[in-house]
Amino acid sequence: MPKPRAKLSGLPVINDRAAAIDIGSRFHVVAAPPELCDQPVQTFQAFTGDLERMADWIVSLGIKTVAMESTGVYWIPAYEILQDRGLEVIVANARESRAVPGRKSDVNDAQWLQRLHACGLLRASFRPSGDIAALRAYLRLRERHLDYAAAHIQHMQKALTFMNLQLHHVVSDITGATGMRIIRAIVRGERDSGVLAAMRDRNCKSSVETIRAALVGNYQPEHVFALQQALALYDFYQARIDECDTQIERTLTILAVDRPVPQEPLGKARSRTQQPNALGFDVRTLMYQLAGVDLTKIDGIGPYLAVRLIAECGTDLSRWSTAKHFTSWLTLSPGCKVSGGKVLSSHTRKTTNRVAALLRLAAVTVGKSSTALGAVLFYNAMRFGTQYADPGADHYEQRYKERVIKQLHRRAAEFGFCLQPAEGVS
């Protein structure tokens, strides 16, 4: 007869007052420690009243911490209600909690999640504080409005093309000063190409004669109507963007009100030209007080990008103990798949992290440079208040030279030789 298998001892319980929720679109399954009640697993509907009853039941059991997975956006109402009750709520990464097969029901999912959380095996995903989360929501809404407005810019250009008005060939941007004056005049009924060309802005590179020739077209009523509709929708979203800017400015003001005013005055902007889709207020001054350093000194990071970075990861970067942890969270650091001392792969992981996408965008603006470098500079500025100063290309060339010389000396020593500098060469 085969010998009976020895019974494996369970993992030690670290959080004895831990619960877990399997989040769904219509209902949520909550699992509590079995020793706290007769029915440790209960189901609640996703309505607000049911979420309140769920929170009451969890609090009545003496639960201190609750874990859940980030299922779509359905976890957010439950998260906020439980957090308002004073509970510690963590959003676990599904990649870490779904490693065990065979769990095919919501009840088993909730129980397994509760067991992992009780044993301290779940790490909380990053979620910023309330004010930062509000700033992030306003900025993301603004980004959607910008996308919608961009679609209607294409509709305006298409209507102009149908009328054979070559405006996009004589101005760099049809939504610039010259382009919008001409488009609005066309919608109002102006057809004289000379009158339209006279609306040219003084900074426009094309001459009046060139613009006049480009604005001789075939003004069919249906195409003019399409242009009018696209312009109205573009203006509508521009108004919504202005409203978002007001909320963003108010939120930044609230965040910066308790921050000490930096002793050094804010330096001049590196560029006088206004960035496309820039915020409609003095964002550099608010960001300087909020961050304590001028983030726009970092190559590739402008005022708008600095606000978006703060909105995504907050102002307290102590949640990442080092810059290496921060770049690893962003999936910007190289991978490390090693077997038998051989590197199998060093590719970075695929990610939907918005901060990583923003830093990659910043890297594109300064050429082919390391995106992880931007993350390190941003981390050091926000965590330690380090002022960034560009050391210049000569600094990196000198460091590269020193590194190569050090390697040559080491290789020569391995073969029993000693390198000496040539005469007259430093």
Provide a short characterization of the protein structure:
By secondary structure, this protein is α/β, with parallel strands linked by helices. It has helices at about 50-60, 75-85, 95, 105-120, 130-160, 165-170, 175-190, 195, 210-215, 220-255, 285-290, 305-315, 325-330, 355-365, 370-385, 395-415, and strands at about 20, 25-30, 40-45, 65-70, 90, 335-340, 340-345.
- Cα-based radius of gyration, to the nearest Å: 30 Å
Pick out the low-confidence regions: 1-9
What is the percent of helical residues? Answer: 40-55%
Strand content: 5-15%
Q: How far is the first residue's CA from the last residue's CA?
A: 82 Å
State the major sheet: 5 strands, mixed
Envelope shape: extended
Count up the domains: 3
Tell me the number of helical segments per DSSP (H or I, 4 or more residues long). 16
Overall pLDDT metric = 83
**Class by helix and strand content?**
alpha/beta
Q: Total strand count, please?
A: 7
User: How would you write the strand order of the largest sheet?
Assistant: 3-2-1-4-5
Written as H for each helix and E for each strand, in order along the chain, the element string is EEEHEHEHHHHHHHHHHHEEHHH
